[in-house]
Design goal:
Blueprint (H helix, E strand, L loop, with lengths): L1 H10 L1 H18 L5 H19 L2 H23 L16 H25 L5 H19 L5 H18 L3 H23 L6
Helix pairs in contact: 2-3, 2-8, 3-4, 4-6, 5-6, 6-7, 7-8
Length: 199
């Protein structure tokens, strides 16, 4: 029994490390700590490998996107708004015009990812993999821009993703995404306290 557990731990050490760092990442995100971005960068790098091995190709590509966005978010959070480099970006509400743009972008991104998974990969779950990947891309961009509602998207994405990873027997990641789901609720209310209306 002990040998079986040790073999499993050894065989899944990358996923376990990624999951542990993922919890730290989400905690930093809730607190709007700049360490969100370097922690996310490392977590995403580990999960590129995990999802490649599991055949979740859209999720793997999403992690590569997260690596890029980690640099972007890191810079944006440190440097603030374009018109005022001395003022750090504040939490804000997504207005109607931005929701229309995000919805339009999501439809395009989803269509491309779904087509690629169906056409070029032997994906067992193209619909869910495309959906969670698309919404994650949108939510991560919103996180980098400090739009409050990113947390509402994450609640949905994290819960659905937990089911997807359960299907793929990625148990540490299932637990991670269930924790993400709960922490996204906290993130929403924590950020809402810091909400400042924009002029």
């Amino acid at each position: 029994m002990l040998n079986t557990i040790m073999d499993w731990l050894t065989g899944n050490k990358t996923e376990l490390l990624g999951a542990a760092l993922g919890v730290i990442y989400i905690r930093f995100s809730i607190k709007q700590n700049i360490l969100t971005w370097p922690t996310g960068l490392i977590t995403s790098s580990l999960y590129i490998f995990v999802f490649y091995k599991s055949g979740l190709y859209a999720s793997m590509s999403l992690q590569a996107y997260y690596v890029f966005v980690s640099f972007y978010g890191w810079y944006f959070w440190l440097n603030g708004k374009k018109n005022d480099r001395k003022t750090l970006i504040s939490v804000r509400v997504t207005n109607g015009r931005m929701w229309i743009k995000l919805t339009f972008a999501a439809i395009i991104i989803y269509s491309v990812i779904f087509f690629v998974l169906i056409r070029y990969f032997n994906s067992e779950v193209p619909f869910l993999d495309s959906l969670t990947t698309t919404l994650s891309i949108v939510a991560t961009w919103m996180l980098a821009k400090k739009y409050l509602e990113n947390w509402l998207i994450w609640i949905f994405v994290d819960f659905v993703s937990a089911g997807l990873f359960m299907f793929k027997n990625l148990w540490p990641t299932v637990i991670l995404f269930l924790v993400y789901t709960i922490m996204a609720f906290f993130g929403y209310f924590e950020w809402k306290k810091d909400l400042k209306p924009e002029n």
